Structure formats: C-alpha cells, structure tokens
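Ops channel
N.P.: pipeline sanity check, posting one input/output pair.
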C-alpha cells in the first residue's frame, strides 16, 4: 500500500497531466518529478563529491611543506576520509528507504561542502608562508640572509627551538586538528550520497532504463578523480598566498623546492561545486511515480559498460537491472522489518556465515590487496614523481589526471564489457582475474629500474641513522654564521653538488643575470666550491627527468590491467554466496575494503616513504617535512610495496581458480553418477533457480 506521500505525489502528477502547460509555476514541480533530471543531478553531485574527496591526494606534498608534516601524518590525514564513512555506512544503509532519501542526500552533500570549506580554514588562520626562516621578511631571503657573513658582523645562529613558543605549537596542533576533523566530516557527508541515490533511481526508473541510467552515472562520475588531479595541477601553479602577496612580490618559481602552491583554492572551488549540485535535492519528492516509458536509444551499449561508481569498490550491473542497483544499497535489503536492536544482533551471525564462503573470502582478500596498491599509489604517486624525477607538483598531477586515471577507467569498462559480451562464467571470470593480475605484476618489474640516484648534497650523509653535518669540505664554511634551519638550495653546475644554502657553499655575494625569459640568480665568491666559481640558485636538475614519461606509461598500463579484474571479481562474489546473502556480501565487502585497505594503506606507504629520508627540517625540536630522500631507497620501497600487494592479489586469484576447478570436477562427477530420474527432476526445476544465482 502506498503511503500518504506516495498518494500525494501521484495525485500531483495526475493534476499536472490534466492542467494546461501554460502555467509557468507548474514547470518546476514537473521537473523535480522526473527521474531523468534526478539522474542528471546525481551524476553531477557524485562527480563533485569524488572531486573534492580526491583533491587532497593531488596536493599532499604541498600540504606537507606548508604545515611541516611527515608522510606518515599526511597519509593518516588522507585515510581519515574513510573513518567517518566506515563508522556510519551500516546504519545509513539500514535506514534505507525509511527516510526522505533526496533530502538525506542533500544534507550529506551540504556537510561535504562545509567540510571542504573547513579544509581551507588553516590557510586563513595561519600566518603567511615564509619560505626562508633565517630572516623576518621574505623579501631579503635571496640577498643577505642566506649569504656567508663573518661572525663578527652577524648574529649567532639561533637554534631551531629559539623561535618556538607555546602559541606556535598550539597553532600548529589546531591547524592539523582542523584538517583531520574536516576529512572525517568529508567521509561522513559522503555516506548517504551513493547508496540512497542509486536505490532511488532503481525504485522509480523503468526496469529497462536502469542500465542506461547506471551507465550515464558511471561515465560522468568516474571523471571525478581525474578532474581532481587536473584541478590540483592548475591550482598548484599559483602561489599559496596569492590573496596576500608581499609588497615586493616573491623570488620563487614553481620549480623551486620551496614553492608551495595554492592548495586551499581547489578545496574552495570543489566545495562550491558540491553546494551547487546539492541544492536541487531539497525539492525532489520522497517518492515519485515510477517511469512508464522505455527509452529507445543505445541503452544496451551503456548497460555493458555499467559498472559501480566510487573508488572501484562497488558492484557491476547484473543481468537483472532491477536487482543490481539494490545490491549497491549496502545492507538495506537484509532485514527491512527489523528494529535497530535486532539488526545489530543478527548482523554478526550473518557476517560470520558469509565469511565462511571460501570464494567470497579469497576474492575479497585479493580486492583488499589491489585496493591497498591503489590507495597508496593514488595518495603518494604525485610526491614520488616530484622527488624521483625532479618535476613540479603541477606537472605530476597533470600526468596522473591525464594518463593514469583514464587508463583505470578504460580497464573497468573493458572488464565489464568482456563479462557481459562473452557471458563469462565463474571459471572464466577467475581466469580473467588471474591473467589481469599476472600481467599487472609483470609490468611492475621494470619500474624498479626506471630512476636515478640522489645527486650529491654537501654535508648530508646518505645514511638515515647518521647525524647529518653541514660541511662537505672541512673548514670552508667556518667563518660563516649559517642558520641551521635555513633552506635555500644552490647547485654547482660543474660538479652537480648541491648545497643547502649559499652560506653553506661559502658564497659572499650574489648576481642577478638577466636571461631570455627570466632572471637567473648566481652566487659568487664561494669558498666551498672548486675555483670559487658561481653556483646557481635552486636544486640541481635530475639526470633522469626524461624517464618520467616511460614510467607513467607503465604505471598507467598496470592500472588498466589491475582495473580489468574489477568486474569479474565482483561477479565471483555475487555467485559465490547464497542468494539471500548477496546483498549483505556486497555491504561486507565495502566495509572490509575500507577497514583493511583504504584506511591503513596511505599510512603504510607514508611510513615507508619516511624511512628513506636523509635530511629532515626541524620545527620546535620535532621532525617536520623531509628535505631530501635517498631516491634509490625511495623507489625500491615504494615500488616494492606495490609489488607486494600485487603478488598477494595474484596468489588469492590463483587459489580462487584452483577451488573453482575442484568444485567443477566434483560437480561433473556428481552429474555422471546421478540417476536419469533425478537428472530429469533437476532439469524440470531449472527455471526456478537461474545459474547466475546459484552457488559456485
């Protein structure tokens, strides 16, 4: 029986049909009673939501430099997006259609927009960025502050703790705390958007149009992560304090290692987009008349490509379009008539029963390994490219957003098309997953050898356990009063030796040489440089910058092959559990992927990156941001983690295929020994249970 809201909605729709369309005030309600308009709004909202969720990953190294964070801390910050999401997904899915779904989506989107605005707050409450800590003003940092001055004419260098105060430490903790709270709210606000939106579309769309709408939703939404990296590429070209530039301007370029881009501006733009996309949801009815007409267009093509939206965790479209989208509503279908207390009591029992399925458990473990690889790569690949190949953060984001993300999308679509067109059964789905994982692992091997060692840095020993000194040539910088916490790198082009500051190179003067496109700053009369020759401002260029394109092409190809396993692995999950447990199995899979992969993986990768640091910047006596890494160690540990997770996924898929073969042999043996009467009885009962719904 329809409830009052449903009756009122149907009566309103009938009224619209009987009235003349000349009244303009009736146009707005009719638009908000169209499922097509809802699909359009939801596509744009999920696009903006994934864009704001993925934007932090594009600016992770910039946030580290701006606020003095280690990679472990920044990885934990990125993982906190999943904390709020995981904590509430079960209860939000439980309430399902009991609430006004469009309004809940709108409220969640507003919370996401507010969280995005909260992420920008640290920029406005912090002091302007000072890229030179040796002088009170940035304007003089390239002249006298970083030069070698006699001790008699310069104050003694103050320890790094000297400028610290309780206010400074409190401000740092408050800024970091605000970002953690904002990331948590970002995850909480995103909880109702996807499951409520997909179930709403499935409830009121024509059953033949559901694959088409899902294909549109998938195609538009999956552009979100790519747009996040593209937005990061644009914003990081702008200086961080573009809204409060010093009077004399700045003497930095985007290639300078001290450069910090306008990371906060991307959050501001993304939050505005989410807020705009959220506004229509407060005008949609709780229920609308079910769509009665089938669209005459290429819905079959889009249905083949229909796959889950969001980080590659959601289920693909199945043979039955009316059933597939309900599965993505998490746990809403498990016990629609149970109270919250009974739901909590029955959940652990059904959870254990589902985890006892060997196919389900192994496939989820393989997806956990693959998601760990994806989460670590998505979070720290931009930083890895910056450090390994000496490219700017903007260019690194452009490569990832233009090559890697589209390759992953193509892999997901191709996997869905292969499963649909070739009608792959469980055995062939397992073989496709195994093949994709094996090829992905093989393309990972050359990445260990694409890169080069860190160039020589004066005064820094490439052993993390050794306390770094300040001098490469003993006594050359003794007459200087070099600040211990200053960072203004210069490079000797003849020997490719880099010095932390001109002072550490013993330089006493500087010259600005006008070039064709910009002025080049040179430091002269350097006592620590052979021939006292001039040194160039800025870090030494990498000898292997040209290898960044082959590297990113191999990474993109591996991403496409890894994404190829997404749809067939999901089909193995849906066919590996009992029919009544399928919806719960999908919900459990979502939670396990978040708890075991998307939450810990950025922290694991960040901790591994921190172990390769050879020179830390100190802030109030604590380690802040890393200045220099051992590039060989960084490459081996970062790519090694990727190799480890890909190997785990390959082993799990191999075990899945072995179990499937064993079950196939047992099923063939039973069919040959069964009696003709029993065989006839099975054939007669076939239509009651389709092969797709049978246990593997």
């Amino acid at each position: 029986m329809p409830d009052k809201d449903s009756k009122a909605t149907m009566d309103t729709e009938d009224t619209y049909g009987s009235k003349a369309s000349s009244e303009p005030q009736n146009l707005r309600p009719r638009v908000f009673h169209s499922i097509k308009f809802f699909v359009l709004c939801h596509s744009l909202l999920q696009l903006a939501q994934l864009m704001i969720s993925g934007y932090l990953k594009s600016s992770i190294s910039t946030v580290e430099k701006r606020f003095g964070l280690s990679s472990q801390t920044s990885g934990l910050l990125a993982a906190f997006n999943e904390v709020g999401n995981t904590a509430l997904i079960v209860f939000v899915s439980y309430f399902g259609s009991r609430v006004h779904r469009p309004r809940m989506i709108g409220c969640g989107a507003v919370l996401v927009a507010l969280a995005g605005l909260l992420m920008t707050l640290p920029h406005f409450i912090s002091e302007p960025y000072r890229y030179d800590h040796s002088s009170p003003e940035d304007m003089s940092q390239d002249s006298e502050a970083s030069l070698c001055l006699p001790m008699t004419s310069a104050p003694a260098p103050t320890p790094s703790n000297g400028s610290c105060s309780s206010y400074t430490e409190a401000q740092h903790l408050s800024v970091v705390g605000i970002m953690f709270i904002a990331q948590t709210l970002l995850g909480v606000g995103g909880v109702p958007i996807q499951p409520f939106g997909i179930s709403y579309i499935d409830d009121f769309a024509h059953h033949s149009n559901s694959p088409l709408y899902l294909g549109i939703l998938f195609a538009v939404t999956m552009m979100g992560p790519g747009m996040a990296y593209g937005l990061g590429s644009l914003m990081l070209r702008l200086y961080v304090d573009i809204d409060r530039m010093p009077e004399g301007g700045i003497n930095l370029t985007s290639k300078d290692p001290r450069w910090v881009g306008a990371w906060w501006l991307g959050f501001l733009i993304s939050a505005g987009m989410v807020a705009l996309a959220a506004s229509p949801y407060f005008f949609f009815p709780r229920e609308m008349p079910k769509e009665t007409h089938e669209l005459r267009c290429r819905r079959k093509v889009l249905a083949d490509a229909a796959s889950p939206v969001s980080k590659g965790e959601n289920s693909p479209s199945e043979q039955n379009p009316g059933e597939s989208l309900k599965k993505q509503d998490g746990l809403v279908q498990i016990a629609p008539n149970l109270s919250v207390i009974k739901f909590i009591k029955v959940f652990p029992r059904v959870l254990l029963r589902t985890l006892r399925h060997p196919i389900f458990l192994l496939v989820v473990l393989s997806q956990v390994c693959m998601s760990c690889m994806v989460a670590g790569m998505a979070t720290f690949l931009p930083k890895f490219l910056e450090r390994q190949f000496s490219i700017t953060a903007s260019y690194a984001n452009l490569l990832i957003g233009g090559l890697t993300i589209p390759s992953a999308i193509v892999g997901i679509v191709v996997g869905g098309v292969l499963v649909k067109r070739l009608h792959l059964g469980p055995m062939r789905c397992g073989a496709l997953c195994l093949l994709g994982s094996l090829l992905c692992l093989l393309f990972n091997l050359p990445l260990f050898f694409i890169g080069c060692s860190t160039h020589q840095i004066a005064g820094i020993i490439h052993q993390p356990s050794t306390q770094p000194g300040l001098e490469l040539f003993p006594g050359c910088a003794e007459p200087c009063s070099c600040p211990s916490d200053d960072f203004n790198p210069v490079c000797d082009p003849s020997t490719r030796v880099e010095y932390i500051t001109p002072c550490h190179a013993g330089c006493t003067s500087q010259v600005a040489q006008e070039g064709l496109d910009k002025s080049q700053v040179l430091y002269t009369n350097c006592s620590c440089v052979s021939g006292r020759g001039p040194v160039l401002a800025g870090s030494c260029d990498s000898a292997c910058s040209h290898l960044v394109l082959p590297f990113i092409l191999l990474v993109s190809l591996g991403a496409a092959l890894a994404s190829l396993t997404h749809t067939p692995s999901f089909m193995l999950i849906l066919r590996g559990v009992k029919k009544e447990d399928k919806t719960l199995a999908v919900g459990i899979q979502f939670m396990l992927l978040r708890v075991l992969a998307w939450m810990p993986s950025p922290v694991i990768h960040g901790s591994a990156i921190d172990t390769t640091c050879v020179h830390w910047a100190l802030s109030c006596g604590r380690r802040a941001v890393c200045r220099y890494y051992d590039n060989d160690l960084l490459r081996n540990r970062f790519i090694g983690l990727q190799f480890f997770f890909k190997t785990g996924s390959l082993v799990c898929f191999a075990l899945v295929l072995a179990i499937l073969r064993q079950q196939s042999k047992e099923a063939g043996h039973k069919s040959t020994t069964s009696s003709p009467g029993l065989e006839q009885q099975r054939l007669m009962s076939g239509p009651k249970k389709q092969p797709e719904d049978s246990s593997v």
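N.P.: looks fine end to end. The mean pLDDT is 78.
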